Protein backbone atom coordinates (compact mmCIF):
# COMPACT_ATOMS: atom_id res chain seq x y z
CA UNK A 1 0.00 0.00 0.00
CA UNK A 2 1.45 3.38 -1.01
CA UNK A 3 2.25 6.18 1.42
CA UNK A 4 -0.33 8.44 -0.20
CA UNK A 5 -3.01 5.79 0.11
CA UNK A 6 -2.17 5.36 3.79
CA UNK A 7 -2.51 9.11 4.33
CA UNK A 8 -5.80 8.97 2.45
CA UNK A 9 -7.13 6.22 4.71
CA UNK A 10 -6.11 8.08 7.86
CA UNK A 11 -8.26 11.02 6.78
CA UNK A 12 -11.30 9.19 5.45
CA UNK A 13 -13.25 9.86 8.63
CA UNK A 14 -13.18 13.57 7.85
CA UNK A 15 -14.41 12.81 4.34
CA UNK A 16 -17.41 10.91 5.72
CA UNK A 17 -18.61 14.06 7.44
CA UNK A 18 -19.20 15.60 4.03
CA UNK A 19 -20.73 12.58 2.28
CA UNK A 20 -24.36 13.32 3.26
CA UNK A 21 -27.16 10.87 3.89
CA UNK A 22 -29.07 9.89 7.00
CA UNK A 23 -27.51 9.19 10.39
CA UNK A 24 -26.68 5.56 10.99
CA UNK A 25 -28.30 4.20 14.13
CA UNK A 26 -26.47 0.99 14.81
CA UNK A 27 -25.89 -2.12 16.80
CA UNK A 28 -23.04 -0.92 19.03
CA UNK A 29 -23.36 2.34 20.94
CA UNK A 30 -20.52 4.59 22.05
CA UNK A 31 -20.47 5.49 25.73
CA UNK A 32 -18.67 7.69 28.22
CA UNK A 33 -16.78 5.47 30.67
CA UNK A 34 -16.12 6.45 34.30
CA UNK A 35 -14.08 4.45 36.82
CA UNK A 36 -12.01 4.87 39.99
CA UNK A 37 -9.52 6.85 37.90
CA UNK A 38 -12.24 9.51 37.57
CA UNK A 39 -12.88 9.61 41.33
CA UNK A 40 -15.46 6.83 41.73
CA UNK A 41 -15.16 5.08 45.11
CA UNK A 42 -15.13 1.58 43.60
CA UNK A 43 -15.42 0.09 40.12
CA UNK A 44 -18.03 -2.45 41.22
CA UNK A 45 -21.12 -0.37 40.48
CA UNK A 46 -24.39 -1.80 41.76
CA UNK A 47 -27.14 0.83 41.34
CA UNK A 48 -28.08 4.39 40.28
CA UNK A 49 -30.55 7.09 41.25
CA UNK A 50 -31.16 10.54 39.79
CA UNK A 51 -32.60 12.69 42.57
CA UNK A 52 -34.97 15.66 42.41
CA UNK A 53 -32.02 18.08 42.65
CA UNK A 54 -30.35 16.72 39.55
CA UNK A 55 -27.59 14.76 41.28
CA UNK A 56 -26.81 11.21 40.23
CA UNK A 57 -26.26 8.78 43.11
CA UNK A 58 -24.12 5.75 42.34
CA UNK A 59 -23.93 2.76 44.64
CA UNK A 60 -20.90 0.49 44.68
CA UNK A 61 -19.59 -2.38 46.78
CA UNK A 62 -17.35 0.10 48.55
CA UNK A 63 -19.18 3.35 49.12
CA UNK A 64 -21.95 5.64 47.92
CA UNK A 65 -21.16 8.34 45.36
CA UNK A 66 -22.97 11.60 44.61
CA UNK A 67 -22.07 12.76 41.11
CA UNK A 68 -22.72 16.28 39.81
CA UNK A 69 -21.53 15.60 36.27
CA UNK A 70 -17.97 16.66 37.06
CA UNK A 71 -16.85 15.21 40.40
CA UNK A 72 -17.79 12.56 42.96
CA UNK A 73 -18.59 13.09 46.64
CA UNK A 74 -18.10 9.80 48.47
CA UNK A 75 -19.97 8.50 51.52
CA UNK A 76 -18.48 5.65 53.55
CA UNK A 77 -19.01 4.37 57.10
CA UNK A 78 -17.09 6.42 59.61
CA UNK A 79 -17.15 8.02 63.04
CA UNK A 80 -20.23 10.00 63.94
CA UNK A 81 -23.23 10.44 61.67
CA UNK A 82 -22.55 8.48 58.46
CA UNK A 83 -23.80 5.77 56.15
CA UNK A 84 -24.13 2.45 58.00
CA UNK A 85 -22.48 0.07 55.53
CA UNK A 86 -20.26 0.48 52.48
CA UNK A 87 -21.95 -2.20 50.31
CA UNK A 88 -24.80 -0.48 48.45
CA UNK A 89 -27.52 -2.68 46.92
CA UNK A 90 -30.18 -0.16 45.89
CA UNK A 91 -31.21 3.52 46.01
CA UNK A 92 -34.50 5.41 46.19
CA UNK A 93 -35.75 8.93 46.97
CA UNK A 94 -38.82 9.78 49.03
CA UNK A 95 -41.20 12.75 48.68
CA UNK A 96 -39.09 14.81 51.09
CA UNK A 97 -35.97 14.43 48.92
CA UNK A 98 -34.27 12.01 51.29
CA UNK A 99 -32.08 9.29 49.79
CA UNK A 100 -32.86 5.73 50.91
CA UNK A 101 -29.88 3.39 50.69
CA UNK A 102 -30.28 -0.39 50.83
CA UNK A 103 -27.14 -1.92 52.30
CA UNK A 104 -25.89 -5.15 53.84
CA UNK A 105 -26.61 -3.57 57.23
CA UNK A 106 -30.13 -2.23 56.97
CA UNK A 107 -31.45 0.93 55.35
CA UNK A 108 -29.53 4.19 55.69
CA UNK A 109 -31.56 7.35 54.99
CA UNK A 110 -29.76 10.57 54.08
CA UNK A 111 -31.29 14.04 54.31
CA UNK A 112 -29.25 16.33 52.01
CA UNK A 113 -30.88 19.43 53.52
CA UNK A 114 -29.58 18.71 57.04
CA UNK A 115 -26.66 16.46 56.08
CA UNK A 116 -28.05 13.92 58.55
CA UNK A 117 -28.30 10.13 58.43
CA UNK A 118 -30.85 7.88 60.12
CA UNK A 119 -31.35 4.13 59.91
CA UNK A 120 -33.88 1.34 59.74
CA UNK A 121 -32.41 -1.78 61.33
CA UNK A 122 -33.70 -5.09 62.72
CA UNK A 123 -34.89 -4.86 66.31
CA UNK A 124 -34.93 -8.24 68.06
CA UNK A 125 -37.01 -6.79 70.89
CA UNK A 126 -39.77 -5.57 68.58
CA UNK A 127 -39.88 -7.49 65.31
CA UNK A 128 -43.17 -5.84 64.30
CA UNK A 129 -41.57 -2.40 64.46
CA UNK A 130 -38.49 -3.08 62.35
CA UNK A 131 -37.23 -4.84 59.26
CA UNK A 132 -36.74 -8.61 59.66
CA UNK A 133 -33.20 -8.88 58.28
CA UNK A 134 -30.23 -6.46 57.97
CA UNK A 135 -29.48 -7.55 54.38
CA UNK A 136 -31.64 -5.34 52.14
CA UNK A 137 -31.61 -6.12 48.42
CA UNK A 138 -34.10 -3.68 46.97
CA UNK A 139 -36.26 -0.65 47.85
CA UNK A 140 -39.24 0.78 45.94
CA UNK A 141 -41.08 3.90 47.19
CA UNK A 142 -44.55 4.39 45.73
CA UNK A 143 -46.64 7.55 45.27
CA UNK A 144 -48.24 7.04 48.69
CA UNK A 145 -44.76 7.21 50.26
CA UNK A 146 -44.80 3.54 51.15
CA UNK A 147 -41.27 2.11 51.14
CA UNK A 148 -41.27 -1.50 49.94
CA UNK A 149 -38.19 -3.01 51.55
CA UNK A 150 -36.92 -6.34 50.26
CA UNK A 151 -34.95 -8.13 52.97
CA UNK A 152 -33.05 -11.35 52.41
CA UNK A 153 -35.11 -14.54 52.97
CA UNK A 154 -37.67 -13.03 55.35
CA UNK A 155 -41.03 -11.34 54.79
CA UNK A 156 -41.59 -8.41 52.45
CA UNK A 157 -41.80 -5.16 54.42
CA UNK A 158 -44.03 -2.17 53.56
CA UNK A 159 -43.06 0.87 55.62
CA UNK A 160 -45.41 3.86 55.79
CA UNK A 161 -42.94 6.76 55.86
CA UNK A 162 -45.46 9.36 57.08
CA UNK A 163 -46.92 7.25 59.91
CA UNK A 164 -43.77 5.27 60.73
CA UNK A 165 -45.75 2.02 60.54
CA UNK A 166 -44.57 -1.40 59.35
CA UNK A 167 -46.69 -3.93 57.51
CA UNK A 168 -45.47 -7.41 56.51
CA UNK A 169 -46.40 -9.72 53.64
CA UNK A 170 -45.70 -13.29 54.64
CA UNK A 171 -43.27 -14.47 52.00
CA UNK A 172 -41.50 -16.88 54.34
CA UNK A 173 -44.69 -18.80 55.08
CA UNK A 174 -45.71 -18.90 51.42
CA UNK A 175 -42.26 -20.01 50.17
CA UNK A 176 -41.93 -22.72 52.83
CA UNK A 177 -45.32 -24.18 51.92
CA UNK A 178 -44.81 -24.15 48.14
CA UNK A 179 -43.24 -27.50 47.12
CA UNK A 180 -41.26 -26.12 44.19
CA UNK A 181 -39.85 -23.09 46.02
CA UNK A 182 -39.04 -24.99 49.21
CA UNK A 183 -37.23 -27.76 47.34
CA UNK A 184 -33.99 -25.83 47.95
CA UNK A 185 -32.87 -24.37 51.27
CA UNK A 186 -32.35 -20.77 50.10
CA UNK A 187 -35.32 -18.91 48.63
CA UNK A 188 -35.52 -15.16 48.81
CA UNK A 189 -37.18 -12.20 47.12
CA UNK A 190 -34.48 -10.00 45.57
CA UNK A 191 -36.26 -7.50 43.31
CA UNK A 192 -39.67 -5.82 43.33
CA UNK A 193 -41.45 -3.84 40.57
CA UNK A 194 -44.92 -2.32 40.65
CA UNK A 195 -47.43 -3.93 38.27
CA UNK A 196 -50.43 -1.70 39.08
CA UNK A 197 -52.03 0.02 42.06
CA UNK A 198 -52.86 -3.35 43.59
CA UNK A 199 -50.12 -5.78 42.50
CA UNK A 200 -46.34 -6.12 42.52
CA UNK A 201 -43.97 -8.35 40.58
CA UNK A 202 -41.44 -10.16 42.75
CA UNK A 203 -38.28 -11.69 41.34
CA UNK A 204 -37.11 -14.47 43.64
CA UNK A 205 -34.23 -16.92 43.63
CA UNK A 206 -36.70 -19.62 42.52
CA UNK A 207 -38.90 -17.80 40.02
CA UNK A 208 -41.40 -15.02 39.34
CA UNK A 209 -44.13 -14.29 41.87
CA UNK A 210 -46.99 -11.79 41.89
CA UNK A 211 -48.28 -10.20 45.09
CA UNK A 212 -51.78 -8.81 45.65
CA UNK A 213 -51.22 -6.17 48.34
CA UNK A 214 -54.96 -5.98 49.15
CA UNK A 215 -55.42 -9.66 49.95
CA UNK A 216 -51.79 -10.35 50.83
CA UNK A 217 -51.79 -13.40 48.52
CA UNK A 218 -48.71 -14.53 46.60
CA UNK A 219 -49.04 -16.30 43.24
CA UNK A 220 -46.16 -18.30 41.76
CA UNK A 221 -45.97 -17.74 37.97
CA UNK A 222 -42.96 -19.80 36.90
CA UNK A 223 -39.41 -20.80 37.72
CA UNK A 224 -36.96 -23.03 35.91
CA UNK A 225 -33.85 -21.89 37.77
CA UNK A 226 -32.24 -21.52 41.17
CA UNK A 227 -30.02 -18.48 41.65
CA UNK A 228 -29.64 -14.77 42.27
CA UNK A 229 -31.51 -12.17 40.25
CA UNK A 230 -29.61 -9.74 38.03
CA UNK A 231 -32.61 -7.75 36.74
CA UNK A 232 -36.39 -7.42 36.82
CA UNK A 233 -38.22 -5.11 34.41
CA UNK A 234 -41.86 -4.60 33.51
CA UNK A 235 -42.99 -3.37 30.10
CA UNK A 236 -46.62 -2.29 30.59
CA UNK A 237 -47.14 -1.50 26.89
CA UNK A 238 -46.49 -5.08 25.83
CA UNK A 239 -47.85 -6.51 29.08
CA UNK A 240 -44.64 -8.44 29.67
CA UNK A 241 -42.33 -8.72 32.65
CA UNK A 242 -38.71 -9.84 32.20
CA UNK A 243 -36.50 -11.54 34.73
CA UNK A 244 -32.76 -12.21 34.33
CA UNK A 245 -30.70 -14.35 36.68
CA UNK A 246 -27.08 -15.12 37.53
CA UNK A 247 -27.09 -18.19 35.29
CA UNK A 248 -27.42 -15.90 32.24
CA UNK A 249 -30.99 -16.95 31.68
CA UNK A 250 -33.85 -14.64 30.73
CA UNK A 251 -37.53 -15.36 31.40
CA UNK A 252 -40.70 -13.57 30.40
CA UNK A 253 -44.26 -13.61 31.71
CA UNK A 254 -46.89 -12.48 29.21
CA UNK A 255 -49.88 -11.06 31.07
CA UNK A 256 -52.24 -11.25 28.11
CA UNK A 257 -51.47 -14.87 27.31
CA UNK A 258 -50.81 -15.75 30.97
CA UNK A 259 -47.69 -17.60 29.85
CA UNK A 260 -44.25 -17.87 31.43
CA UNK A 261 -41.21 -19.08 29.54
CA UNK A 262 -37.55 -18.65 28.64
CA UNK A 263 -36.49 -15.94 26.20
CA UNK A 264 -33.82 -16.94 23.65
CA UNK A 265 -30.54 -15.05 24.00
CA UNK A 266 -28.38 -14.57 20.91
CA UNK A 267 -24.87 -13.16 21.16
CA UNK A 268 -24.72 -9.97 19.16
CA UNK A 269 -22.79 -10.53 15.95
CA UNK A 270 -19.31 -9.13 15.58
CA UNK A 271 -18.90 -7.98 12.88
CA UNK A 272 -22.55 -6.96 12.58
CA UNK A 273 -24.81 -9.11 10.46
CA UNK A 274 -27.93 -6.95 10.62
CA UNK A 275 -28.85 -3.27 10.76
CA UNK A 276 -31.11 -1.69 13.35
CA UNK A 277 -31.55 2.07 13.15
CA UNK A 278 -33.77 2.58 16.19
CA UNK A 279 -32.90 1.67 19.75
CA UNK A 280 -35.51 3.93 21.38
CA UNK A 281 -37.74 0.98 22.20
CA UNK A 282 -34.97 -1.43 23.09
CA UNK A 283 -35.13 -2.57 26.69
CA UNK A 284 -31.74 -3.21 28.28
CA UNK A 285 -31.22 -5.67 31.14
CA UNK A 286 -28.28 -6.55 33.36
CA UNK A 287 -26.55 -9.90 32.93
CA UNK A 288 -23.44 -11.56 34.31
CA UNK A 289 -22.28 -12.10 30.72
CA UNK A 290 -22.79 -8.52 29.56
CA UNK A 291 -25.60 -6.29 28.38
CA UNK A 292 -28.90 -7.89 27.35
CA UNK A 293 -30.89 -5.93 24.75
CA UNK A 294 -34.50 -6.92 24.19
CA UNK A 295 -35.34 -6.18 20.62
CA UNK A 296 -38.48 -4.25 19.74
CA UNK A 297 -40.55 -7.37 19.15
CA UNK A 298 -39.66 -8.50 22.71
CA UNK A 299 -39.44 -12.11 21.50
CA UNK A 300 -35.67 -12.52 21.87
CA UNK A 301 -32.65 -10.72 23.31
CA UNK A 302 -29.21 -9.83 22.05
CA UNK A 303 -26.21 -10.22 24.32
CA UNK A 304 -23.65 -7.47 23.84
CA UNK A 305 -20.48 -8.70 25.47
CA UNK A 306 -17.16 -6.95 25.85
CA UNK A 307 -15.06 -6.68 22.68
CA UNK A 308 -11.60 -5.24 23.42
CA UNK A 309 -11.23 -3.74 19.95
CA UNK A 310 -14.34 -1.55 20.28
CA UNK A 311 -13.32 1.41 22.42
CA UNK A 312 -16.24 3.10 24.16
CA UNK A 313 -18.53 0.09 23.77
CA UNK A 314 -19.61 -2.37 26.46
CA UNK A 315 -17.29 -2.62 29.49
CA UNK A 316 -15.82 -6.00 30.43
CA UNK A 317 -17.26 -8.08 33.23
CA UNK A 318 -20.63 -8.42 34.92
CA UNK A 319 -23.38 -5.88 34.25
CA UNK A 320 -25.07 -5.19 37.60
CA UNK A 321 -27.66 -2.51 36.89
CA UNK A 322 -29.30 -0.55 34.08
CA UNK A 323 -30.77 2.89 34.78
CA UNK A 324 -32.50 5.44 32.52
CA UNK A 325 -32.36 9.05 33.70
CA UNK A 326 -34.84 11.87 33.05
CA UNK A 327 -33.15 12.77 29.76
CA UNK A 328 -33.37 9.11 28.69
CA UNK A 329 -29.63 8.60 28.91
CA UNK A 330 -28.75 5.05 29.90
CA UNK A 331 -26.39 4.29 32.77
CA UNK A 332 -24.86 0.81 32.82
CA UNK A 333 -23.14 -0.29 36.01
CA UNK A 334 -20.57 -3.07 35.81
CA UNK A 335 -17.81 -4.58 37.93
CA UNK A 336 -15.37 -2.38 36.00
CA UNK A 337 -16.95 1.05 36.35
CA UNK A 338 -19.99 2.45 34.61
CA UNK A 339 -20.89 3.65 31.13
CA UNK A 340 -23.20 6.53 30.17
CA UNK A 341 -24.96 6.06 26.84
CA UNK A 342 -26.14 9.53 25.93
CA UNK A 343 -29.43 9.78 24.06
CA UNK A 344 -28.05 12.76 22.13
CA UNK A 345 -24.91 10.79 21.35
CA UNK A 346 -26.61 7.73 19.91
CA UNK A 347 -25.98 9.11 16.42
CA UNK A 348 -22.33 8.26 17.07
CA UNK A 349 -23.18 4.58 17.38
CA UNK A 350 -21.68 2.30 14.79
CA UNK A 351 -21.86 -0.95 12.87
CA UNK A 352 -18.59 -2.90 12.88
CA UNK A 353 -18.56 -4.42 9.41
CA UNK A 354 -15.01 -5.77 9.54
CA UNK A 355 -13.48 -7.53 12.55
CA UNK A 356 -10.56 -5.74 14.16
CA UNK A 357 -7.96 -8.19 15.37
CA UNK A 358 -5.98 -5.85 17.60
CA UNK A 359 -6.93 -3.14 20.13
CA UNK A 360 -5.49 -0.29 18.02
CA UNK A 361 -6.62 -1.52 14.63
CA UNK A 362 -5.87 0.46 11.47
CA UNK A 363 -8.94 2.07 9.90
CA UNK A 364 -9.41 0.39 6.53
CA UNK A 365 -12.98 1.55 5.86
CA UNK A 366 -13.69 3.88 2.97
CA UNK A 367 -16.57 6.23 2.19
CA UNK A 368 -20.23 5.78 3.09
CA UNK A 369 -23.21 6.87 0.97
CA UNK A 370 -26.96 6.69 1.56
CA UNK A 371 -28.90 5.87 -1.61
CA UNK A 372 -32.44 7.19 -1.32
CA UNK A 373 -33.51 5.27 -4.42
CA UNK A 374 -32.72 1.80 -3.08
CA UNK A 375 -33.10 2.80 0.60
CA UNK A 376 -29.72 1.42 1.58
CA UNK A 377 -26.33 2.54 2.79
CA UNK A 378 -23.43 1.69 0.52
CA UNK A 379 -20.24 1.41 2.54
CA UNK A 380 -16.79 0.84 1.12
CA UNK A 381 -13.99 -1.19 2.62
CA UNK A 382 -10.42 -0.76 1.45
CA UNK A 383 -9.05 -3.84 3.20
CA UNK A 384 -10.51 -6.40 2.96
CA UNK A 385 -11.78 -5.00 -0.31
CA UNK A 386 -15.53 -4.94 -0.76
CA UNK A 387 -18.77 -2.99 -0.57
CA UNK A 388 -21.37 -3.50 2.16
CA UNK A 389 -25.02 -2.91 1.27
CA UNK A 390 -26.94 -2.08 4.44
CA UNK A 391 -30.65 -2.26 3.65
CA UNK A 392 -32.84 -0.03 5.83
CA UNK A 393 -36.02 -1.94 4.86
CA UNK A 394 -35.00 -5.59 5.28
CA UNK A 395 -32.25 -4.75 7.84
CA UNK A 396 -29.92 -7.12 5.99
CA UNK A 397 -26.20 -6.49 5.46
CA UNK A 398 -24.77 -7.85 2.22
CA UNK A 399 -21.11 -7.92 1.19
CA UNK A 400 -20.14 -7.59 -2.48
CA UNK A 401 -16.45 -8.25 -3.14
CA UNK A 402 -16.44 -9.08 -6.87
CA UNK A 403 -17.67 -7.32 -10.00
CA UNK A 404 -20.35 -8.72 -12.29
CA UNK A 405 -17.77 -10.94 -14.03
CA UNK A 406 -16.58 -12.45 -10.76
CA UNK A 407 -13.32 -10.52 -10.67
CA UNK A 408 -12.33 -9.56 -7.10
CA UNK A 409 -12.66 -5.89 -6.27
CA UNK A 410 -9.62 -4.08 -4.94
CA UNK A 411 -9.41 -1.30 -2.36
CA UNK A 412 -12.92 0.22 -2.47
CA UNK A 413 -12.60 3.93 -1.73
CA UNK A 414 -15.98 5.63 -2.04
CA UNK A 415 -19.31 5.98 -3.87
CA UNK A 416 -20.14 9.01 -6.03
CA UNK A 417 -23.37 10.03 -7.78
CA UNK A 418 -23.53 11.55 -11.27
CA UNK A 419 -26.10 13.94 -12.75
CA UNK A 420 -28.38 11.08 -13.83
CA UNK A 421 -28.51 9.66 -10.28
CA UNK A 422 -26.29 6.76 -11.27
CA UNK A 423 -23.83 5.55 -8.65
CA UNK A 424 -20.17 4.91 -9.29
CA UNK A 425 -17.72 3.01 -7.10
CA UNK A 426 -14.18 4.34 -6.96
CA UNK A 427 -11.46 1.81 -6.12
CA UNK A 428 -7.68 1.83 -6.12
CA UNK A 429 -7.54 0.49 -9.67
CA UNK A 430 -10.92 0.98 -11.33
CA UNK A 431 -14.26 2.77 -11.51
CA UNK A 432 -17.46 0.72 -11.48
CA UNK A 433 -21.11 1.48 -12.18
CA UNK A 434 -23.54 0.16 -9.59
CA UNK A 435 -26.65 -1.59 -10.93
CA UNK A 436 -29.27 -1.21 -8.22
CA UNK A 437 -31.58 -3.97 -9.44
CA UNK A 438 -28.89 -6.61 -9.83
CA UNK A 439 -26.81 -5.20 -6.95
CA UNK A 440 -23.72 -5.66 -9.08
CA UNK A 441 -20.79 -3.53 -10.21
CA UNK A 442 -19.55 -3.25 -13.82
CA UNK A 443 -16.18 -1.78 -14.75
CA UNK A 444 -16.23 1.59 -16.50
CA UNK A 445 -14.49 1.03 -19.88
CA UNK A 446 -10.89 2.19 -19.87
CA UNK A 447 -10.69 2.73 -16.11
CA UNK A 448 -9.13 -0.60 -15.17
CA UNK A 449 -5.48 -0.39 -14.11
CA UNK A 450 -3.02 -3.07 -13.12
CA UNK A 451 -1.26 -0.80 -10.63
CA UNK A 452 -2.64 1.45 -7.93
CA UNK A 453 -4.15 4.60 -9.35
CA UNK A 454 -6.39 5.27 -6.34
CA UNK A 455 -9.46 6.92 -7.79
CA UNK A 456 -10.23 9.51 -5.13
CA UNK A 457 -13.16 11.67 -6.28
CA UNK A 458 -15.55 12.07 -9.19
CA UNK A 459 -17.83 14.92 -10.30
CA UNK A 460 -19.91 15.29 -13.46
CA UNK A 461 -20.01 18.77 -15.03
CA UNK A 462 -22.85 20.40 -16.97
CA UNK A 463 -21.44 19.11 -20.27
CA UNK A 464 -21.74 15.54 -18.98
CA UNK A 465 -18.01 14.90 -18.58
CA UNK A 466 -16.67 13.22 -15.45
CA UNK A 467 -13.88 15.00 -13.59
CA UNK A 468 -11.86 12.30 -11.86
CA UNK A 469 -9.23 12.84 -9.18
CA UNK A 470 -6.57 10.22 -8.49
CA UNK A 471 -3.65 9.93 -6.10
CA UNK A 472 -1.15 8.73 -8.74
CA UNK A 473 -2.33 9.96 -12.15
CA UNK A 474 -3.60 13.37 -11.19
CA UNK A 475 -6.63 14.80 -13.01
CA UNK A 476 -8.54 12.81 -15.63
CA UNK A 477 -11.62 13.62 -17.69
CA UNK A 478 -14.04 10.99 -18.97
CA UNK A 479 -16.72 11.26 -21.66
CA UNK A 480 -19.44 8.70 -20.74
CA UNK A 481 -21.08 8.97 -24.18
CA UNK A 482 -17.90 8.12 -26.11
CA UNK A 483 -16.51 5.93 -23.27
CA UNK A 484 -13.10 7.57 -23.43
CA UNK A 485 -10.66 9.26 -21.07
CA UNK A 486 -8.91 12.51 -22.03
CA UNK A 487 -6.75 15.22 -20.51
CA UNK A 488 -7.93 18.79 -19.85
CA UNK A 489 -6.62 21.31 -22.39
CA UNK A 490 -5.38 23.79 -19.79
CA UNK A 491 -1.70 23.04 -19.20
CA UNK A 492 -1.93 24.43 -15.67
CA UNK A 493 -4.03 21.47 -14.53
CA UNK A 494 -3.25 18.65 -16.98
CA UNK A 495 0.04 17.86 -15.26
CA UNK A 496 -1.21 17.57 -11.70
CA UNK A 497 0.06 14.62 -9.66
CA UNK A 498 -2.40 14.11 -6.79
CA UNK A 499 -6.02 15.33 -7.02
CA UNK A 500 -8.16 14.71 -3.93
CA UNK A 501 -11.49 16.39 -4.63
CA UNK A 502 -13.79 18.64 -6.63
CA UNK A 503 -16.70 21.02 -6.14
CA UNK A 504 -18.57 23.04 -8.76
CA UNK A 505 -19.85 26.55 -8.06
CA UNK A 506 -22.60 26.89 -10.63
CA UNK A 507 -23.14 30.59 -9.91
CA UNK A 508 -19.61 31.58 -10.90
CA UNK A 509 -19.06 28.67 -13.27
CA UNK A 510 -15.93 27.68 -11.37
CA UNK A 511 -14.67 24.17 -10.70
CA UNK A 512 -12.64 23.98 -7.49
CA UNK A 513 -9.88 21.38 -7.73
CA UNK A 514 -8.09 20.29 -4.55
CA UNK A 515 -4.73 18.57 -4.44
CA UNK A 516 -2.47 17.00 -1.87
CA UNK A 517 0.69 19.07 -1.93
CA UNK A 518 0.12 21.30 -4.97
CA UNK A 519 -2.37 23.86 -3.69
CA UNK A 520 -5.89 24.60 -4.92
CA UNK A 521 -6.90 25.29 -8.52
CA UNK A 522 -10.03 27.07 -9.73
CA UNK A 523 -10.91 26.14 -13.29
CA UNK A 524 -13.13 28.63 -15.09
CA UNK A 525 -15.46 26.43 -17.12
CA UNK A 526 -16.53 29.22 -19.49
CA UNK A 527 -13.02 30.33 -20.44
CA UNK A 528 -11.27 26.98 -20.04
CA UNK A 529 -8.52 28.65 -18.00
CA UNK A 530 -7.42 27.94 -14.44
CA UNK A 531 -6.10 29.98 -11.51
CA UNK A 532 -3.62 28.47 -9.10
CA UNK A 533 -3.65 29.29 -5.38
CA UNK A 534 -0.52 28.35 -3.52
CA UNK A 535 1.82 30.03 -0.99
CA UNK A 536 3.86 32.82 -2.54
CA UNK A 537 5.21 36.08 -1.15
CA UNK A 538 1.94 37.95 -1.57
CA UNK A 539 -0.27 35.13 -0.23
CA UNK A 540 1.56 33.26 2.59
CA UNK A 541 -1.78 32.21 4.12
CA UNK A 542 -2.22 29.78 1.25
CA UNK A 543 0.29 27.50 2.99
CA UNK A 544 -2.70 26.16 4.91
CA UNK A 545 -4.39 24.88 1.75
CA UNK A 546 -1.53 22.79 0.42
CA UNK A 547 -2.76 19.45 1.80
CA UNK A 548 -6.47 19.21 1.03
CA UNK A 549 -8.08 15.90 1.91
CA UNK A 550 -11.62 16.48 0.62
CA UNK A 551 -13.98 19.04 -0.86
CA UNK A 552 -17.74 19.22 -0.48
CA UNK A 553 -20.71 21.51 -0.97
CA UNK A 554 -23.28 22.13 1.74
CA UNK A 555 -27.07 22.53 1.39
CA UNK A 556 -26.71 26.27 0.73
CA UNK A 557 -24.18 25.75 -2.02
CA UNK A 558 -21.14 26.80 0.02
CA UNK A 559 -17.95 24.93 -0.83
CA UNK A 560 -15.81 23.64 2.03
CA UNK A 561 -12.30 22.21 1.97
CA UNK A 562 -10.82 19.96 4.66
CA UNK A 563 -7.08 20.43 5.02
CA UNK A 564 -4.50 18.36 6.84
CA UNK A 565 -2.32 21.44 7.19
CA UNK A 566 -4.75 24.09 8.41
CA UNK A 567 -8.29 23.00 9.35
CA UNK A 568 -11.56 23.45 7.47
CA UNK A 569 -11.95 26.26 4.94
CA UNK A 570 -14.74 27.92 2.98
CA UNK A 571 -14.33 28.91 -0.65
CA UNK A 572 -15.20 32.56 -1.56
CA UNK A 573 -15.48 33.01 -5.33
CA UNK A 574 -16.08 36.77 -5.30
CA UNK A 575 -12.75 38.05 -3.97
CA UNK A 576 -10.09 35.43 -3.49
CA UNK A 577 -7.02 37.60 -2.89
CA UNK A 578 -8.38 40.12 -0.39
CA UNK A 579 -10.46 37.50 1.30
CA UNK A 580 -8.30 34.38 1.00
CA UNK A 581 -9.77 31.17 -0.27
CA UNK A 582 -11.09 30.27 3.13
CA UNK A 583 -12.14 31.05 6.65
CA UNK A 584 -10.65 28.88 9.35
CA UNK A 585 -13.26 27.39 11.71
Amino-to-carboxy terminus distance:
33 Å
Count of separate DSSP helical elements: 3
Any low-confidence stretches, pLDDT <50, length ≥5?
1-26, 576-585
CATH superfamily grouping of the domain at 32-348:
YVTN repeat-like/Quinoprotein amine dehydrogenase
Walk across the major sheet and give the strand order.
1-28-27-26
Instruction: Classify the beta-strand content into a percent band.
Output: 35-45%
User: What is CATH's topology name of the domain at 32-348?
Assistant: Methylamine Dehydrogenase, Chain H
Write up what this structure looks like.
Helix content is 3%, strand content 42%. By secondary structure, the chain is mostly beta strands. Strand 16 and strand 17 (217-222) form a beta hairpin.
Give structural attributes:
585 residues, mainly beta, Methylamine Dehydrogenase, Chain H, 3 helices, 47 strands, disordered C terminus
Give a short synopsis of this structure:
By secondary structure, this protein is mainly beta. It is 3% helix and 42% strand. The protein is built from three helices and 47 strands.
Amino acid sequence: MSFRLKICLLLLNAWLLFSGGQALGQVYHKARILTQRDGLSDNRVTCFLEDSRGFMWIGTRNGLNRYDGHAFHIFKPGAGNSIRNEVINDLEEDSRGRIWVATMEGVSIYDPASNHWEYILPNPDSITLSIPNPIVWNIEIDKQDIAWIVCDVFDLTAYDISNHQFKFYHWKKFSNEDPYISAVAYHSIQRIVKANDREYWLATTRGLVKLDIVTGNFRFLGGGYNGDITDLQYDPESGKVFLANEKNQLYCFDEKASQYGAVPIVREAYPSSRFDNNDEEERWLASRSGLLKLRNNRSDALLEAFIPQLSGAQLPGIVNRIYTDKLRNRWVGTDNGFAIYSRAGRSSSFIPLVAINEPLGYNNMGGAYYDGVSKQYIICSVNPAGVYLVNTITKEIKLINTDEKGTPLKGCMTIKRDNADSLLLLTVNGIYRFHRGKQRFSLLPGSGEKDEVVYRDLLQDDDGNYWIGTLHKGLLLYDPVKNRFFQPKDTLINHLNTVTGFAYDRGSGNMVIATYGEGVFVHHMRTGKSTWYYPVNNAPSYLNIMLINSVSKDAKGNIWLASLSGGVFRYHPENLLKKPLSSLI
